[in-house]
Structures are given as C-alpha cells and as structure tokens.
Queue: 4 jobs
Job 1
Amino acid sequence: MPLNDAQFIQKIVDLQSEMEGYTDKASARELYAQKLLIIIKEYLMSSTVTITGTSNQGPFTGTGKIS
C-alpha cells in the first residue's frame, strides 16, 4: 500500500488550523511538535514495504510493515 500523501497533507493543514487558536506560544509549540510527530509516525507506518533480491539460496521477495 503506497503512502497516502493527500491524507498526510490534510492532517498537517488541520493541525496548523488548530494551532492558530492558541495564544500561549510556548505551550502551542510543544503541542505542535508532539502532534506533528504522531502524524509523521502514522504516515510512515501506514505503508507496506516490499523487498526483492537474491542470496546464495536464490531470489527472494518479501513484504513487511514499518513498526
């Protein structure tokens, strides 16, 4: 499954919109960093990784999730 760029962009835009309402800049920066980290992790872990190659036992393929 490929990365969903449109969803990632929308989540970032939503986060920025949410942050516009905060008046305490110091706490808003901390909250922004925490929420941004969560969005990035969700984005990266949403994809499936596919590998192919060869070894001394012949060709191989595999899939996995980032965790």
Job 2
Amino acid sequence: MKKTFATVVVTLMTTAAAYAQYYETKNELSISVGAGANSEILSGMKDFTSITASTLITGIATLGYETSHMTYKDETYTIPIAVSYYRHLNKTIALGGYVAYNSLKRDAYARKILSAGGSEDEKIGKARNTNLSLMPSAKFHWVRTKNFGFYSKLGVGVLFSMEKQEADSRFKDRKNYTQTDVLFDFDITPIGLDFGSTVFRGFLELGMGEQGIGVLGLRYKF
C-alpha cells in the first residue's frame, strides 16, 4: 500500500511538471512564521536533564527543596520566524537556505518541604531557551506557473541552542547556569504551495525543520 501511494505521488509530480506552464524567475526572498520547529521538540526533550544537572538547582539543594521535583510554568513563547533566499539553477532546482529563530521564556519551580509538614511548589528562578539555525537547502519545483507553484525542500544545517537559567535574587549564594550547544539539524518539506502574482505570493509548507511543521509566509520573486 505504501509503495503504491508513493508511486502515485511521484507520477502526479512528474505529470504536473511536464504539463504545467513554466514561468521563469531567478530569485526568491521570503519571510515566514511557523509552529513545531525541530528545536522546540529538542528543548522539550532536554528539560529533564538540563534542569536536574544545572547549578541553579544544585545551588539550592540544601535550602529545603526537592531537587528531584522541578517544573516550568508561565511560559512566553516566540514562534519560529525565518528569512530565506533561493536562486533557481533551472526549471526544477533552486539552491539557497534560511535563517530561523525562536525562543522560550518561563519560570522555574521547585518543591519546597514545609516545616509544618507537606510541601508546595515555589518559584526559584527563570529560564530562557534561544534557538538560531542556519539551514542551506535545495528546493525542487514540480509546478511553476504565473500564479501557482508546488515544490518540495531538503536541507542540512546547524542549530545554535542557548539555554540560560537564573536563580531569584533572594538566594544569597545563587549560581546561574548557561549552556550553548551546536547541533546538527535538518529540513524535510515534502509539500510546499505558493500562490499569488508573478511578483508577490503567499505560501504554505508542511514538513519538519526549523521553520516549523506548519509554515505560513510571504514571498517576493524577482
């Protein structure tokens, strides 16, 4: 079944590319917003190990807090924002890439043991994750007409993931925690659609990458 579906998709792409009216433009400049970037998923996976190992937490371990019970609350999120540029080599292939940014601010809470018995979650500091990616990539255009385009995208790049945790000022001997990771990253976008005039277009993309699982944007063609 999967093989049959893949065959149908490839056949449709090939047929569309063969019969669609080709429209020539050399350059594309785009700006986009999205949701569900690779780095967002990675940040969620890193929460447990980062918060447990951080000096912010170990610095208050003797003050009556359970270091094994850490949570984040009150999140402020900046969705993935990206700027991209591509130059067409021929009717099908364009080379270029994009720069993408997203961030997450939130408060860090630890469980404090109460003298009267029991416990409660108490704010101990704040955390910020900032992600910046550079993604060289190639676009494969299956349809390029004056008002519509259908394409796919494939890229390999690098992600700079910066995490910072700051303890509240009430902790006299507080220690802050900062870490920057340089990671391998990728973009796989099987479905890209753009529509509009010969110069300005809106576009929609579905895939996996630093722009997000779902992406909306504006494109300038020249």
Job 3
Amino acid sequence: MVEKEVIAEVPGFFGTLTPYIIIAVLILAAYAMSFYREEKEEHSSLWKALAVAIPTCLGIAAVIEVLAFKFVGTDAIWWCDGDRYGFWMGVLLILPLFLFVVLQFLSLKAYNRFLFSRENDIRHICIKPAAWALILVVPVFFIIFCICLAYGWKDDKAVMAMLGIPAVMLIIGLAISFYKNIKLFGLSAGLVMSAFCVVYVLGDIAAVGFCAIAIWKLIVQVLTGIGGVFLCVLGASKMGLFDGMDKQAKKEWDKYYKDPRNQIHY
C-alpha cells in the first residue's frame, strides 16, 4: 500500500525504489572494484577494464541523482521522509542515505588509489578546482545579487557582474581541472576524466542536498513537537490549570514545621 501511495504522489521512475537501489549497487560496486591492485609494471586487461568500469558506475549513479533532483526535486527522498513514515522511522531510513553519500565521496579517493597505487606515486585526479567552482557558483551569484539589491544597482553593469563573475569563476575552475587532467592522462583520456569529474561533482551536490533536506525535515519535526508541548504548557498555565496543583502543594507543605534544631516534623 505504501508503494502505491508513493507512486501516486511521485509519478514515474523516481516514484519507485528502483533508481535508488541502482545507485546503491553502482556505488558499492565501484568502491569494491577500487581495491583491486597489481604490482606489475604492465597493467593487465582486467585492470584496464576496471579503470573504465569504476568511473562508469560512479558516473551513472551521479546522472541518476541529478535527474532525480531535476524531475522530482525534494520528493526524491520520499523513501526516508520523516513526515511520511514518522520521526523514528525517518531517523532509521536516513542512515543508509547518509552512508551512501559518504561512500560516494570515498569512492573517488579509492579510485585514485586504484589508478596510482605504486609506491611513492603522488599523482592524482584533478577535481578540486572544478568542484569548488561548481559548488560556489550559485552562492557567489546570490551574494552579488544581494549586494546589487542592497545598493539599488539595476543597470547593465550590475547584471554583467551578477552573471559574469560566477561565469568567469566557473570557467577558470573547469579549465584548471581539464588542463591538469589532460596533462596527466593525455588529450582523449584527460577530456573523458574531466567530464566524469564534472558529472561526479554534480551528483555529489545532489546527494548532499538530499541528505541535508532529509535531516532538516527531521529537525523541523523535533522543533514542531517541542513547540507544541511549549504551547500546551503555556496554554494550561494561562488557563490556571496549575493553580490548583500549587495550592495543594502549599497546603501539604504547611503541614510540616521546623523545630529550633532545624529538624522537620509532620
């Protein structure tokens, strides 16, 4: 019954558990494959196949996450929604979401160790410049927009600043990652690796967003419950429901007395 109700509210592919199971399987498979090691100078055909399979799995998982965010937005986390299943069930269901978000982050590090596993090999996939550019582009745009709004700047220069500065920052970040990866892997492999990094970062952003939304909904539930209890107590106090209790307590206390030696008697 739950599955049918959910499908009615979140239509299509993302209204079922199928995409989320696929994401979990792909991330687990990529992470597991990353532990394969070879000591030989010349890599085997298996190693070469895994070198392609690992980013393919992570890339497909990231694409599904981005599509889920695009088509159903925050409803993509219906399966761990505390509003739908209750607070404690929501806490229980959010644990696998958090686990796979962490595992998704660790998968790229594991893949990097897979590629450069030889001793004293300090090479690594260049993803940080592109990642920071993609993460900060929206906040930078919003900050510039707020500054322009606060100072009343509405001319073409303000619009150019709002659009141009984030765009330049994004281009620089992507260019650095593309350049370093091409230098490390060669033109074709470097372009493919850089494209994978962009997709992977977008998937990570979507996954962290889902996790943050799920946690925020649980926090709202807690705050709502606390607020409800506070209002009930405040209302009871205003209605004088505690007055009788106070009078009864005072009446009982009056039955006790202290002697000169500070001993209490009934």
Job 4
Amino acid sequence: MKQLSNLNLGFSELLSFNKKTSLITTSRRHSYVKLLIILCSTYSGSIYATTISLEQYLGGYSTELAGKPALTFKFTSINSDDFCNIITTEEHMFSSNNLLENINLSEKNFYLDCEVDNQFYMLSNHFRTYAQVLIKQPDTNFPMSMHIEAKLVTINGEYLNVISGDISLRK
C-alpha cells in the first residue's frame, strides 16, 4: 500500500487512490479523508508560516501591564524594519526563574507581539500560539541575554514563527 508522505496531496487524488485499492472500503476511505483534513488543519499554520530571526536588542523602557510596573524589551532582525516587543511585569520577571512562558494567553503578566512586513502578530487564545523567553543572567564574561522562541498569529490566522540565538541586552 502506498504511504501518504506529502500533505499537498489533493482530496481528489486521495479518493481516486483509495478507489483503485480494492482493500480499502468506503468507511476506511472516509477515515483517510478525515485524517487528511485533521493533518492539514493541524499543520497548515506551521507549513505556511513566516519566520523571523531576531538578532539585535534595540532597547527597553519601563511601562505598566495590568496596572503593575512592567518592562518592555524591543528586538529586531539586522537590516530590517521588522520588530518584536516583549512586555512583562517586573514582579513576574524576577519570580519566573529566568523562564517566561505564555501559551494561548494563559499568562497575564507576560506578552510578546511582533510587526513583520506591516502585519501585526500576537498571542491568541483562539489559535495555537505560545511565547517562551529564556533569560540568561550575566556573568564575568557575558552580559545578560535573552533567547526567544514564539509562534504568533494575525487576526486573519496567518502564523509567524519567532526564533533567536542568545541576544545580549547591551545596546
């Protein structure tokens, strides 16, 4: 039996493949169609997502989040107008054991958003999104840095993958 290895296989191709195979019954054919629909809907965001690689710290400032003192950090790709903002309450940052996480807007004291190619990407509780920031404390050889990873979405459901190496918080 052939294996389905390419998600770009169309529904008509799948159905004609199944009709040619005498071992596959109608109910099994429907199961394959359901599986393909699930696979396409599960992976459609990550297959066609834009990716931004953050490389440079632009600066930060004090602000408020949910009525509490907060810090905002701004990052960009080199030679690009694209940028991402991290905002977290001071209390959350200092009590987080150097790991900030927000999955589907589950954390109200930490937020990450980006503007890429004039599109605004954000965390959402309607789409599968997350943001994770690993804060690396300074030592004698290296300044404080952040490692950022996220999957954000536009209001239209377009995904953005955010990645970075360790970005120094020195300007």
